[in-house]
Each structure stands twice: as C-alpha cells, then as structure tokens.
Design brief:
The protein is an alpha/beta fold and about 260 residues long. The protein contains seven helices and 15 strands. Strands 1, 2, 3, 4, 5 and 8 form a six-stranded mixed sheet that branches. Strands 11-10-9-14-15 form a five-stranded mixed sheet. Bound molecules: beta-D-glucopyranose (BGC).
Length: about 260
C-alpha cells in the first residue's frame, strides 16, 4: 500500500485536532476537525475522541497521532499536561483497537518538527535546528542534517527553580496574565538556556504561538536566527501523518527479514 493519505491527529492540552493529510505534498486535504480535550483527559476518554475523529472522516486507513509526552515504541512514558493514568499504556494498541485502524503514536514535538523540516521553515536546512513548540507545554526537538533525536523533553529543564514550561509556555503567559513583551522576556531567557546547552544554528518556533510571532519575535536576541514555523499549528497534524508512514515502512522492512 502506498501511504499517500494518512489521517493525522494531534492531541493537545485543550483540543484534539485531525485532518486527512497528503504525505507527499505535506498538505491537509480536508478541513481540520477539532474536539475539546476531555477532562479528565484519561486514555479511555481520549481514545473515544480519536474514534469520533476517525468516524467523522469515515476513515479506514492509517492513522498517525502526536501525543504530548514521551513515546517509546508506542508506549507513553510521561504525560505532563494530561493525566498520570497514561504512563506505560501501549497507545498504538489502545487506539488501534478502539478505531479498527492501524494507529502509530509519536511525541507531538517530534511530529511537528518532522513536518517543518520536510515542508516548512526547516526545509533543506543542513545545520543544527531546534524546534520549540509553544502551547500548553513547551515541546522541543533537535535536528542535525535533517535527522531527529526523539523525546528530547527540554521543556522541563529547571528555570528559576521550577519546570521551564511553568515559566515560559503560552499557558504560563495566560495564567500569569503577562503582556506579550513580558512573556517574551521569559521566553528569551529560556531560549538562551537552550543555546548554552545545545548551540543550534537556527531556532524554529511552532505551536499555537507561531501564529502570533509578530508580537514577540522582535524581543528575542539569541545568537541563532529565530523563525516562525511556516506550517503553523497544522505542523502537528501533518507530522503525525508523516511519522505513521515512516513507522509503517519500518515494520514492513522488519517483517521482510
Ligand atoms: C511534554 C512534551 C510535549 C510538550 C508539548 C510537554 O509537557 O512533556 O512531551 O512535547 O509538552 O506538548
């Protein structure tokens, strides 16, 4: 089967969004369909939402899902902004059983990064690129010569003695009622820490905040050039679809051995 079209789904802290993606063009083939993230966001409740999205598109093919936590071979290992009941659940299995489709789950920042490097701001870039998604959490992924290191989780480094995403995410901006300029000061500090540790040549800002880059990008003064993600918040959906295609290929290869 040629996985030209895959249903991409992005699980976020406030909404679960899906669309059918053309994986060669890196484009959405349908409108995005969004359902608010259920509260509490337990695996069963979110699996029901995923089933609703699959049914909405009358989808029977492959599904790629971006998840806001560490994913190892389909197992969730962390779920900072969802619910502890996710830890060590096999999500490939849970979502595949629920939907009847073949589902592959990856970390949401890894997914967004794959899409941006293939079709967005990072297209053709050969140096070290760091992508930071700014939303409920801070998602991070680094690419060197286009290859990624999965599950980097640099959103949880300590900044002023606390988890960095509690200080510099978009959720922190809203919770602390900060002006964009004040929030940009915090985010700039965070990016400087990233520079001291990782020395990227380019920093791409993704997630919900990438749509509002004109409100804060001028306040950032890192050595590395900072650019907004061009796929905006579609990157998570497109990337989830791409990674599903990638895993499908890998499984096919190991099955042939
Ligand atoms: C999670 C990451 C995720 C990021 C963005 C963080 O809280 O630990 O895995 O990529 O939020 O959703």
């Amino acid at each position: 089967m040629k996985l030209k079209k895959v249903l991409g789904i992005d699980i976020g802290g406030s909404g679960v969004k899906g669309a059918i993606v053309h994986t060669k063009e890196g484009k959405l083939k349908t409108k995005r369909y969004r359902i608010p993230t259920p509260q509490p966001a337990t695996p069963e409740a979110v699996a029901d939402v995923i089933k609703k999205i699959v049914d909405h598109f009358k989808w029977e093919g492959h599904v790629g899902v971006g998840f806001p936590g560490v994913i190892q071979q389909g197992f969730a290992r962390t779920a900072a902004n969802l619910d502890d009941s996710w830890i060590d659940v096999n999500l490939n299995e849970l979502f595949s059983k629920k939907t009847g489709c073949e589902v592959h789950v990856v970390n949401d920042a890894d997914a967004a990064g794959m899409a941006e490097m293939k079709f967005g701001s990072g297209k053709g870039f050969k140096g070290v690129a760091l992508l930071v998604t700014v939303g409920t959490g801070l998602g991070t992924v680094i690419f060197t010569n286009g290859r990624l290191l999965p599950n980097m989780e640099m959103g949880h480094i300590l900044l002023h003695g606390a988890d960095a995403e509690e200080y510099a995410s978009d959720a922190a901006r809203k919770a602390d009622d900060l002006s964009w300029e004040d929030w940009a000061g915090r985010f700039n500090e965070y990016l400087h820490r990233m520079e001291e540790l990782l020395w990227p040549d380019m920093i791409i800002i993704g997630g919900g905040a990438s749509k509002k880059d004109d409100k804060f990008i001028q306040h950032l003064d890192t050595k590395a050039k900072v650019v907004p993600a061009t796929l905006l918040n579609e990157a998570g959906i497109i990337g989830a679809a791409l990674t599903s295609k990638y895993y499908h290929k890998l499984e096919k290869k190991s099955g042939e051995k």
